[in-house]
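Form P-L/3: holo structure prediction, ligand alpha-D-glucopyranose.
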Amino acid sequence: MNYKKNKDVISNILRDLYGHLPEFDLWLLKIFKIIDASIDQRPAYLLDLDNIRKSYNQDWYLKPDMMAYMCYVDRFAGDFSGINKKIPYLKELGVTYLHLLSALKPRKGHNDGGFAVADYYATNPKYGSMDDLEKLTRTLKENEISPCIDFVFNHTAMDHKWAQKAMAGDPYYRDFYYFFDDEATTKEYENTLNEVLPETSPGNFTYFEETKSWVWTTFYYYQWDLNYKNPNVFLEMLKAILSLANKGIQVFRLDATAYLWKKKGTNCLNLPETHKLLQVFRAVMSLAAPAVCLKAEAIVGARYISKYLGDTAGKKPECQLSYHNALMAALWDSLATGDVLRMSAMLKSLPQKPLGTSWITYLRCHDDIGWGALTDDEGASWAANKDDLKKLNDFYEGQTEGSFARGQAFQISRKDAFHGTNGTLASLAGLEKAMECGNEADINTAISRIMMLYKIIFAFGGIPLIFMGEEIGLFNDYDYNKLDPVTDDRWLHRPALPDNNQVENVKLKNTRRQIFSDIREMTQLRKKQPLLHADVPTLILDSGNSHIFAFVRKCPEGLFLVLANFSPESQKLSSEFITKNELSIPLIEQFTGARYDLSQGLALAPYHCIWLKA
Ligand code: GLC
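OUTPUT (holo model):
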């Protein structure tokens, strides 16, 4: 899109959102001044990157060589300079995209793992200065790793200078947030709102004695929701993101994207105005920092997530990337039940994502597994009910007979509400328990579960993401409660990365090495598969066996079939599957090179996943 066209898009959307306000035209001029200044200040090396990505490398984030890694800087490498030293480790694993959690200056004390930002122009002092971050982003770029940070733009910390001024009664800054003098109004909103942290931070509003008023706090009391109805909030956040883009950040993870706009009588999630805000952020980025990608963190029901990638026709683009939290939760559901019917039905019901967009496919991240993704507010037939969620909750807490998991329930405030589960990938998939018992067969089974899940997210259609420590199968950190100032049980699955060379237990050391090298092999193999480009459609197939998950990546150039057996028993795929899906050609398994003639049917070992290509 050219400069003029892009400017029109920006003006039109902003006019829709704010055109009714007095002095809109003057305000719009300010916005364009900010954009132009940002373009002027963009460093030459980033302008070069912009040009490359605008011309011959437009699909850089869709390519099969993309692989993401997500870490807390201190827990992974100490500080920003420590990350430099870890670059060889990341490259060995095949990482091309690095998400640094909690990179910006958080408030002191409790800060929700860095998600309460006190200053968008300063870095987390534990990690280093803005100059250090800038140096790091440059070095990462030279190493072909795209740096990503969180842009926490739904709320600021209550310690942010805007919030402080608002608290002191400054009307200009009070209007940056939602203040209510009467509790009755907050109650009216509450009637239709959900609770994100029902146990540790119930409700969506916090009363502050200092101002004798309630403030909108969707998350913790110290995270104040921004009021995007105020155009100056948009203006300030735009300035902040543009300044960070010029520091060399290539991907912004837009935190809590779904909550931006509020409207009484709704659940204040996924509102049309929220989408418009994202469209305008995207249009501004295309103009001022086209090398940058926006990534939605919209942990909402399946039917809503693809909307964050824009409309299917690609006329109203939003984020280029979005977490596929519904796939993530469904994979855990299937692993517990051994049954893939809900997952297949849910995925089938979703529209194809727009061209030029990509999912972030993942198994775990720093948050809990939110079971809400398996429910549906329009009553889809695949949706899980409370009993299903209770079973999952119990299974992953290890309470169910035969459960291999070692997890913990998160935010259970009411006995009938099953919010989420905490735990690392390895602990939830059974490796922790198996390692404790020391039984070789159980250890191998747990590793098979992990690799099966990885093979799915590496082939599904998007950028696979590894959360730090997964690559060596780290277990839960049961000491998290001893840390100060930890108050949040999600720290269970955020262990620091140990040095594997120091590990004395040989079995553990070898298991870690094996997982690392299996993932590395997968990354290498994935790179060579053009059919795993994110624009190749993903079609969910009916395998005819409720334990076998089947999908195909298919385009005129060929097909890539993935089959995964979620059950602890060996499972058969009948020859009908092949004829029904017109797959009766010899296929080659990509890891082993073995030739498969599916017209004869197929037996899949427990937790086995194969990648077949014509
Ligand atoms: C996102 C983050 C989560 C945080 C919340 C509030 O969901 O992933 O960790 O608690 O936003 O910022």
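COMMENT: Residues 532-613 form a domain with the Immunoglobulin-like fold (CATH 2.60.40.1180).
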